[in-house]
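Researcher: I'm preparing a figure for a lab meeting and need a structural model of a single chain. I don't have an experimental structure, so a prediction will have to do for now. The sequence is pasted below. Please return the structure as tokens so I can convert it later.
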Amino acid sequence: MSEASAPRPRLSDRGPSRRAHARRPSRLLLRSVWVLALLTAGLQAPLGRAAADGSEHQRLPSLGEPDSGDISEGTERRIGEYVMRQIRRDPAYLDDPLLLAYSQALWNPLVRVARARGEIVPETDQAFAWETFLIRDRSINAFALPGGFVGIHLGLIAQAATTDELAAVLAHELTHVTQRHIARSNSSARRQSALSLAGMLLGLLAAARSGSPDLAQATIMGSQAAMAQGQLNFSRDMEREADRIGFTIMTEAGYNGAGVAAIFERLQRANRLNDSGNFPYLRSHPLTVERIGEAQSRVQQAQALAQSASLGVPGGPVGQTVRITEQRWASDLPSQEMHQLMRARARVLMEIQVPALRRWQALAAPDGGVEDRLATLYSATLASILLGEPRTARRHLQELQARPLLPSSGPVVELLAAEVAVAEGRAHAATADLETLDGRDRAVRLARAEAALKWLQQATDVRERAKARQALQLHADGLATWVIDRKRDALAWSILSTCHQALDQPLRAVRAEAEARWASGDLNGALDRFKAGQRLVRSSRAPDHVEASVIDARLRDLERERRRAFAEIRGMREEDLPPVLPPNVPL
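Model: Understood. Here is the structure written out token by token.
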């Protein structure tokens, strides 16, 4: 296959959330920013005279002060949900089940420790999402959004050498959320529309993707949130607070605190971030020599306390941190081997152009000179699948499978082996092999359904098609059960829609597609698909009445949701809206 040809999508690289993106921001994200700017142009309440002329200084709450302006937990979550609806529709958004599960495995222990320490109060715990998501971007970065959403660039996973380095970044981001820095820094929140803040955040995201300060200023001015920029800038005290509390949280969760200084130094070498104060809530690592020194000092202090504890000297609260840290390898944290595999996966998926994939193949050559052979073989296998070269993928996979693996890493390699089998035209074998894995795992569940789909497509005779159809129905039923409690799983809904379509169940396929649109933030698209389902019921000779009732109920729910969103955008009460709303209002 020539380098000019496009790589073939792999088994799990389906749907709009898996597309490659350019380094500049996508048209969808920029369009969302400007539409939101227009819609929110008149929403901001007039400023008081003292604030408008600059005669009254805006006081920043001191650290530990409970005051967070007028932004409630619910408002923060609503702002975050609004921004997330735009992000989920952007080509840079990536729902890779393996990488997402890995990031959550690193994130969840940090959240548990924050709860135990009281950093997460019950009101915040209930209102916020506490979710991570992935951005297909080569830069070493992560960012927090209001409402407990934390975005992770694939470049960060690819460049973090250890789980500790990655956990250090997540703990820092978690602290920004638990301490509600965005609310505390916006002391004049009563004068700001929630949508104006959301518009500013979207503008900063688009500008950060483009690397253009001019674009940042333009989008901020466009949403009439220029005033909020200064209020959202993280002060040095807030950054120090995030460093200090984040260090304690990560070490109490079982990670090595040395990862903080290590990732700061790595980011400083990458020259991606600085202390200029730009992109305040969306950048999380303003790296300076001073902060790196503080991180190293904390590690030295922890080591001294550990030594004192071994001599029977009381260590105090930090001594408790050291004690828990010493139990690291007895915990259920992801292993370093797992990190190397996920690091390899992120490296391939963050840049899926043909030249980049060829480079990963070349590194797996016997004379490649790469020390971490395990990760290199994983990257080469995955790159070969994306390039549509199953023979090369099989060769690298066989060498990978011959190497000793930890039990926790085995399923990751088996999922890769299933992708190779499907690429070879042996989806029936992949379906059978996946049955040996834990079906409670999301990645396994989705892979089973996709393998069964490919098996039905590859079947050549009537008997084999019947077996493939039976397997597909089984896994479609499993996905249908899965999404009952996970209605926001857009990828699962999308795959389920394809399954129902292959099984000649058009009404269920349309309903699942509508749910996928809704889960990905496309409310207007979801309404369109549910209405298409109603038309399909009316034209069917033997409609599925149960599914038809579900479609009717969901359509009513989404119409109410649309009215609430429309009212919020226009600054109106729902009861004052006209009976019929204009179609396809940007939401």
